[in-house]
Amino acid sequence: MAEDPALSLRVSEIKDPAVLFERYNTEEIRRIERKVRGEIEQKKEELRQMVGERYRDLIDAADTIGEMRQCSESVVQSIQDMHQYCHSLKQGKAGASSCGRESQRQWQEKFYTMASQIKLLLEIPERIWSAMEASQYLQATQLYLLCCHLHSQLQLEAATGGHYSPVLARFPILVRQVATTGHFRSTILLDSRSLLRGRAVSDQAIAEALVSTMLLEGSSPRQALADFLLARKASIHQLLNQPQHGARIKAQVCSLVELLVTTLYQAYAVFYLPPEGGPRPGEGVLSCGMLFSTLDNVTSTTPAAKGSRRVLQEETSTGSWFTYLPSSITEFQPALRTLAQPIQKEQLRETLQQWINTCKEDICRGVGSLLVYVKSLKGLAAIRDAVWDLLSSDSISQHWNTVCQRLLERPLAVWDDFLQQLFLQRLQAITKDETEAISTSSVQLLTSAVRDLEGQTIHTSSGTNPGSGRSSQYEVDVASFLWSESPGDLLNDAGWVSVNQRGQQQQRSGLAMKTQALTPCVQNFCSSMDAKLKARLDDLQHYLPSQDTVSSSGPTEGSSASSFNRFTDSPAVEEALRGGCLACVRHILSSIRSELAAASPHPSLARLSSVLFMARLCQSMGELCPNLKHCILGKQMGSDSTPMGTPRQGKKLGKARAAAEVSPAQAKWAGLKEELLNCSMEAYRIWSSALSKVLLDKFGTALHAESAGAILTTATNWEDLEIQEEAESGSSITSKIRLPVQPSWFVQSLLFQLCVEVNRVGGHALPRPTLQELLQTCLTQALQHYHSLTQQDPSKEGVFPMTQNRALQLLFDLRYLNTTLGSKMEEGKSSRSHQDPRIHDVCDWLESCIDPFDLDVFTPLLNTNLNRLSQRTSVLLGLLMGSEKQFASRSSSVNSQEAYNILPLTSNQIRFGLLPLSMSTVRKSKSASRGSDAPHQPQAPPSSAADGDSFRPGSLFRQLADQEEDSGAQSLFKLSWLSGMAK
Asked: Mapped to the 3 state alphabet, what secondary structure does 691-709 carry?
């Protein structure tokens, strides 16, 4: 609804009435008129009310003025009458004697004396208030005592029977004055004691306030010392009970320290008196004994002191009435009720020590409750540094030791005695809480990762994949992660920053992670934990000395008298973080062990992925969490670089000093790594035992087959060989024999499945002891199955008899398994010392099933086939064979007929590894083996030998080398690009 323009018009805006008739119609003008008339009547009513109220006030004021006029006229008339009466008396007694005039003069002087005292008494309250406003409490006390002295001089105290004294009867105004001065004593005492609580108060002001208290209460210096210390204790309580805020805690702690230090300085300046023969108060650099010097100046009765410190000294030149004051008033000096004895040195020391002990309990309790609100080590370091800056200032540190030695006869370290332990306890509590939070979150992350892996394994085995993360899939099948490409495989600066130049703290490439089989789940867990530990370490560095602090201010740290060394508790600080990190990792390890214990009896397929994840996690935690090492070893020890020199020199020095230089932190770090390794080995042991059980159960089923069909199903093709034998007549007889050249299918399946499973979990990164234990377990269980085969009853119905051919095949299988899965021989020990005795038992049992004459003929040939098979399968079963087994016979095969190129591993890895190397020794060995060692090996058919050569590893490069010898063409390995690549 639109607003009426006539009603919105203000009266003050109406200047020209003619404009209204131009702008508005008649009805609107009438409304404007009614509005204006209404406002006029309203203003009239307001004016009427205001005039009525003011009129009453005016009438009252007029009546008061009239009364004052009448009073003043009556006073003037009385004075005139008195003047006339006195004049008439003077004229009437003009001839009186001189004795009468003298008595009148004395009476007049007495009257003037009383009048001057009354005038002074009337002025003293105003002077007392002025002195109190200027915080001059000693001056106010002196004036109050003078006022009390005037009361006694004028006899203003109430007389017996409740009647006023004669002076009060003549001057009634003094009644109110006497009542007013009675409140000054409590006011001066209250303000003086409140002054004692202040921190920014001068020593002289403290001394004067204490003298005021002593004069008003008649107390002794020991009582004054007690009042001073009680006031400071109340001030400490007031500081501790203030509201807590983050930035205000630092100010509160600094105020407490400043108050404590200032109290001792002022106790020395006010109460301490030097021994006899020492410098008097005020003569040395440090002033002392101000209480006694001030008290002596105020209460001394000597003429010199009276002249220098009189209460009314400043009034000598003001007003003629001052000359009528008696000498007892003008020379008034306050006096103590008892003699002020100096405080003995022992009493002063005991009192101060007792006060310090009491305040120490209060400060420790109060500051401890304040520090609860500090949530970071950075905040603690800021408070500590502020206290250090305060105690290192020249005003405090210059004479601190001197004051403490004279007052307490011992040094007083404020930080060490009061605050250091509180800060250390709070630091330990913060570190414990944070590390417990890290351990809790890490355990939660571990539990969720384990559950995701178990769910991913179940879905994978059942053929369903509900869109889970790729990282969980990589954890189930590590080989798919190792052979997949990702953008982060190589870092952006990989072209110009070598691996040796890249520090541990810098980012590692994805390819480096894949070489160690560190899956994304492991990387995510370790990176999350490392980031949290780095935050803890960075927060801790605020409390520890930095390199700049150590190099610049380290030698002078704590050199000032009252200052302290901020970093004396650095070992305890690092120990707190070290203990927290150790507890954190051990909590994680306990969770991992509980998970392993739940999976250890009979782990399912879903559990094995999580077991392997925990094994890899424990194996790589120390490497992928470099900040864990820094937290345990400390910043300096964790960041120390390796000593300069060759690696061999470093190893020699390390071996020589290893036992002497191992610190407790390094021992704890080594112990933690040992715990991680043991937990990792335990997890790998669970996996290896479960894997060997599954594979060897299938192996045992096939080995113990009782039907001929099942045995033939696992049989392999044998090799036909021709051998020449000498008959009794001297002629040579050529005979044809058949021998096994490859193991049975169930043996090949066992080894292949074992190799597949090992590669599927990243076998190249498996710990060597785990792999050896897996192979040894498989060999032991296989021997158990073979041994149980020997225990079968051959007369049992349905059991296939042990024929010679089957015994040959089983003997070949057993020796091949022993060669492939057996442990490496050590130097100086025979192979028989490493073998299970059951191997010889089974071999003897199998050989007993073979004709002895045939066994003598077959044994060399079986050995040759076994060596050839081992060399052919060394690459396929590389992880099972081991680097120490692949080329054990390389030196002995130089002079043999068949020099196999078995892809040797070079000691210096180049960009393209496992390339077949063509060397002159291979050519020489070939030429030498063509005609020299023929009688040592049985002759095989040329076709079979040629076929074998064509399928041997490296045959293509060997043929190229032969062509080079025959045709004299340039060798393939002399080509510039390949030779440069090999370099």
From this structure: HHHHHHHHHHHHHCCCCHH
Side-chain-facing half-sphere of 224: CA atoms under 13 Å: 30
Mean pLDDT value across the chain: 76
Is residue 576 over pLDDT 70?
A: yes
- Euclidean distance between CA atoms 290 and 71, whole angstroms: 56
Distance CA 283, CA 280 (A): 6
DSSP conformation class of 739: E
What whole-number distance in Å separates Cα of residue 482 and Cα of residue 480? 6
Alpha helices in 510-604 (DSSP H): 510-515, 520-541, 547-552, 570-599
Mean pLDDT of 774-789: 87
pLDDT of residue 583: 93
Residue 57's contacts (CB-CB under 8 Å, 6 or more residues apart) are: none
Q: Both tokens of residue 936?
A: 């040592």
pLDDT attached to residue 556: 43
Span 42-49, mean pLDDT?
Answer: 88
pLDDT, tens only, 458-488: 655 555 444 445 666 677 777 777 777 777 7
What integer pLDDT is reported at residue 147 of this predicted model?
Answer: 82
Least confidently predicted of 232-246, 637-651, 743-757: 637-651
Please give the DSSP secondary-structure letter assigned to residue 723. Answer: E
| Amino acid letter, residue 317 | S
What's the count of helices (H) and strands (E) in the chain, helices before strands? 41, 2
The total of other beta-carbon atoms located within 10 Å of residue 940's CB is 19
Find residue 894's DSSP bridge partners: none
Copy the structure tokens of residue 787: 């041994």
Q: How many Å apart are CA 946 and CA 898, to the nearest integer?
A: 11
pLDDT at 117 over 90: no
Residue 641 confidence (pLDDT): 41
Taking the C-alpha atoms of residue 652 and residue 659, their distance in angstroms, rounded to an integer, is 13
822 and 778 in contact (C-beta within 8 Å)?
no
On the 0-12 / 13-18 / 19+ scale of CB atoms within 10 A, 348 is: buried
Element (DSSP H or E) covering residue 269:
helix 246-271
What SS3 string covers 506-522? Answer: CCCCHHHHHHCCCCHHH
Residues 171 and 741: their CA atoms lie apart, in Å, by 145
Q: What is the mean pLDDT of residues 918-924?
A: 41
Mean pLDDT of the region 548-564? 50
Confidence of residue 107 (pLDDT cuts 50, 70, 90): confident
Instruction: Please list the alpha-helical segments (H only) found in 625-744.
Output: 626-633, 635-639, 647-661, 664-703, 708-713
The CA–CA distances, whole Å, from 355 to 240, 260, 267 equal 17, 10, 12
- Taking phi over 0 as left and psi of -120 to 50 as alpha, with beta for the rest, 463 belongs to left
Q: Are 155 and 167 in contact (CB under 8 A)?
A: yes
* Residue among 198, 191, 235 at smallest CA distance from 216: 191
H helices of 13-25, in order, are 17-23
Question: Which of the given ranges, 268-277, 312-321, 326-335, 842-851, has the highest pLDDT on average?
Answer: 842-851
Closest CA to 585 of 635, 530, 538: 530
Residue 275, CA distances (Å) to 278, 412, 505 in order: 6, 22, 65
Q: Whose CA is closest to 426, among 380, 495, 365?
A: 380
For residue 936, the model assigns a pLDDT of 40
Strands (E) in 370-409, as ranges, are none
Q: Please, is 342 exposed, middle or buried when counting C-beta atoms within 10 Å of its C-beta (0-12, 13-18, 19+)?
A: middle
SS3 at position 792: coil
Q: How many residues does the chain have?
A: 983
8 A C-beta contact, residue 351 and residue 230: no
Distances from the Cα of 442 to the Cαs of 146, 504, 586, 589, 674, in angstroms? Answer: 79, 22, 12, 11, 20
The DSSP line for 469-517 is: -HHHHHHH-HHHHHT---GGGS-TTTTTS-TTTS-SSSPPPHHHHHHTT
> What's the confidence (pLDDT) of residue 585?
92
Smallest CA-to-CA distance from 602 within 478, 697, 679, 700 is with 697
What DSSP string describes 97-121? -HHHHHHHHHHHHHHHHHHHHHHHH
